[in-house]
Amino acid sequence: MRRIKLTLAYDGTDFHGWQVQPELDTIQGTLEKVFAEIEGQAVHVAGSGRTDAGVHALCQTAAVSLSNPIPLANLRRAANRLLPPAIRILEVEETALDFHPRHHAASKTYEYRMFRGEVCPPVEWRYVHHYPYPLDLNRMMTLAPLLEGSHDFSAFAAADDRELESTVRTIFSSRVELSGDRLFYRVSGSGFLKHMVRNIVGTLLEAGKGNLGRDGVREFLTPVSGKRAGPTAPAKGLFLVRVDYER
């Protein structure tokens, strides 16, 4: 048996997220069908995390166990021939049999993209949140780093993740940057709760609109307040950029 580490990218627009769901097209489900065809039997493809419906990945990490002796280069070519164009396997490598892309991840980096111009180019519309309205960008840039460090992020989580044993996560970097008409929120951390990044973006937008200040952001990081962050920003602007592993 071989454990194969996969590095892949996908356009999540037409998929119902990563996780397998009955009768729905998902990234994991599509990968499992393709590798089952190569292996000749059902296989499980594990991912580093469950991206939501409509979320994209520039560099997602997954793993599959195969007994097929096909060379790695041929495996990548065969898989990409069978996969739809919206999913591409960028790299394949053999790894330890106990490797798990989620449990062994040291950090993940996400990027949220907003287009600030009045008219959004059609080729970008599927991949950005078009927000041409007034924003205090300096306030957003100032408040974003307040999320760095280890905090209870339950206020930023979807309802089903608020019941987890622990909703504490560590954020290594949280930054808002402007480049022309494009506004980027980039965040790296040890892990993320469901909808967490999109709710952070929604919170920063509220700050940019003047509805939230430093104390308001800090209050969301105090679970006893009972307040919920957000609103949840649209999925289409979110990209999983990188998953890092300790060597």
Describe this structure in words.
With 247 residues, this protein is an alpha+beta fold. The protein is built from 6 helices and 10 strands, in the order βαββαββαβαβββααβ. Strands 1, 2, 3, 4, 5, 6, 7, 8, 9 and 10 form a 10-stranded mixed beta sheet that branches. Helix 1 packs across helix 2 and helix 4 (137-143) packs across helix 5. The two termini are 23 Å apart.
Key attributes of the depicted protein:
Alpha-Beta Plaits, alpha+beta, 22% helix, ten-stranded mixed β-sheet, 31% strand, 247 residues
**Extended strand count:** 10
Helix and strand content put the structural class at alpha+beta
User: N-to-C terminal Cα separation, in Å?
Assistant: 23 Å
CATH class of the largest domain: Alpha Beta
Count the DSSP helices: 6
Strand content: 25-35%
Query: What count of domains describes the coordinates?
Result: 2
Report the mean per-residue pLDDT as an integer.
95
What's the order of the H and E elements?
EHEEHEEHEHEEEHHE
Q: What is the 3D form?
A: globular
CATH topology description of the largest domain: Alpha-Beta Plaits
- Identify the CATH architecture of the largest domain: 2-Layer Sandwich
- Helical content stands at 10-25%
- CATH H level of the largest domain: which superfamily? Pseudouridine synthase I, catalytic domain, C-terminal subdomain
Unreliable residue stretches: none
Largest beta-sheet characterization:
10 strands, mixed
Radius of gyration: 19 Å
Oligomer class? single chain
